[in-house]
Amino acid sequence: MSLNKLENSGNALFEILHHGAVNGVTGSCHQLKLAGKHLDSDSSSYSVLIDCGLFQGDEKEGSSALDDDSSELAQKQIDFSLEGIGALVVTHCHIDHVGRIPYLLAAGFNGPIYTTQATAHLLPLVIEDALKVGVTRNQRLIRSVLNKLKALIKPMPYDQWFDLDGMSNCKARFQVAGHILGSAYVEFDILDASHVKNKGSHRVVFSGDLGAPHSPLLSEPKSPVRADTLVIESTYGDKLHESREHRRQRLKQAIERSFEDGGTVLIPAFSIGRTQELLYEIEEIIHVIESAKKLNKLDENTVSKGATVWDHLDIIVDSPLAAKFTQSYRELKDLWDAEAREKVHSGRHPLAFESMLTIDSHQSHLDTVEYLRKTGRPAVVIAASGMCAGGRMQNYLKALLPDKRTDVIFVGYQAKGTPGRDIQRYGANVAGKPNGYVVLDGERITINAQVHTLSGYSAHADQQDLLNFATGIDQAPQHIRIVHGDDQAKQALQKLYREYLPDCDVVIGVGEE
Question: Considering only 169-178, 241-250, 256-265, 430-439, which range has the smallest mean pLDDT?
Fold first, then answer.
């Protein structure tokens, strides 16, 4: 296992162990192990987990069916000891950060689960869907897991220190991460028992997933005042995103261009976060077009020749889960940023506009796929999963990838080993390569569709944002541990941190050995 020890008076104050998101970007799970006596234990150590996410793509270890054999589940999905682990802190509710929670509960975990208030609202929806889609249809088991989950969740406000049950020398605090609604980075203040008189402490910060500044709907993250040890994600540690205005223009142009010959635009997107951001941006595009028409200012800088397609264009959200999350986003609009709240105040509805259609039932989904396949009617379909590894998007891809009128627009990271990464790599418009294929449900599907990637729509901070986050800490970090990224991204970020923070020990996290 990977660990980080700090020596104080001859004793290790804490260790950091990684149980995921060190060999790639999925399966986030980190253990903060504290030394010394604690309130509810005679043990010499006490631990808190930070996230417990599911592995995806090449990082996937294989799935387990949820049944009553908790010991088998522990061996397959929770491959680390739960001894001394007293609490779980959840940074946000994307599946790669929370997907192993049902297995954790089945393995015997019974401690508090600390989340932000918004994450507490969204987390049961995520876990219920994950259970139904990938684990079991047994309603009794699903209800049992959800009841236990809800009983353990402890919602906490942002920017407020709270004590961790059973921990006498550690407190925690959530800060806005700007990744999805309710997302947070978490600060731990660990008291050095040997310096109680002067209250000496060590501040450990786990970034979770940091959002990009100026993202729609959400407030941007701000650097902590202090982080003696920083454990930080590096998904885009080697890349820079395009500007928000540029990416919106590219999205508009990609959609309009795709309808020159008819056909459907497919946008794989996670049900929470990305879907709502896309709807927000599309509503803005439509609003600008409609405003320009009313003012008779249809110049090419405002409305391109293809803009007329927006008059009769259906924006289809084919995901019951995404619809639930979108409703939750609307209910939690007090957490939106100032720009989004101003739009609502002016009478606009960024997440519920006229041309937006929601597909609910499975039969309606199948009918829609077949209708678009036969007719080539112009439509934009937003559906999960974001990496094309499951969900309703797979049915659209199987039906429409062979059609050259189809366009696929990727707006998020595609992990190695996922169908999304293969479609990106072997798409019909990849220069110098013949049309490739992707395997979906064991079936080889030819890719004749045009494939586009708009990196600016990632909900992750890019390299410059990650640099700004670390260098913006008032009391510069002594240690930085880089996780949650491909090797190239982690190495590039490490090099950058060493350049800008020469007095800081910067290492790349590694998994179990």
Answer: 430-439
Q: What residues form DSSP beta bridges with 231? A: 206, 481
Backbone φ, ψ for residue 328 (5° rounding): -65, -40
In 3D space, the residue among 505, 403, 507 whose CA is nearest the CA of residue 445 turns out to be 403
**Spatial separation of the C-alpha atoms in residues 377 and 369, rounded to whole Å:** 11
Q: Give 174's pLDDT tier (boundaries 50, 70, 90).
A: very high
Confidence of residue 294 (pLDDT cuts 50, 70, 90): confident
Mapped to the 3 state alphabet, what secondary structure does 338-387 carry? HHHHHHHHCCCCCCCCCCEEECCCHHHHHHHHHHHHHHCCCEEEEECCCC
Looking at the chain, the whole-number percentage of residues with pLDDT higher than 70 is 86
Q: Name residue, tokens 């986030």.
A: 28
Phi, psi of 244, deg, nearest 5: -60, -40
Nearest to 310 by CA among 283, 348, 272, 328: 283
The residue assigned the tokens 């595009």 is: 285
Q: For 168-212, what is the HEC assignment? A: CCEEEEEEECCCCCCCEEEEEEEECHHHCCCCCEEEEEECCCCCC
The pairing of strands 356-358 and 450-453 is: unpaired
Between helix 320-331 and helix 117-134 the angle, nearest 10°, is 170
Euclidean distance between CA atoms 167 and 34, whole angstroms: 9
| β-sheet with 356-358: strand ranges across | 356-358, 314-317, 379-383, 264-268, 407-410, 450-453
Q: What is the pLDDT of residue 511?
A: 61
Helices and strands: H and E segment counts in the chain: 14, 23
Q: Which amino acid is at 315?
A: I
Nearest to 283 by CA among 344, 359, 332, 328: 344
Instruction: Please tell me whether residue 319 adopts helix, strand or coil conformation.
Output: coil
Nearest alpha-carbon partner for 5 in 479, 485, 470, 473? 479
- Do residues 184 and 208 lie in contact, with contact meaning Cβ atoms separated by under 8 Å? yes
Distance from C-alpha of 270 to C-alpha of 493, rounded to nearest angstrom? 26
Question: How much is the pLDDT for 354?
Answer: 84
How high does pLDDT run on average in the chain? 85
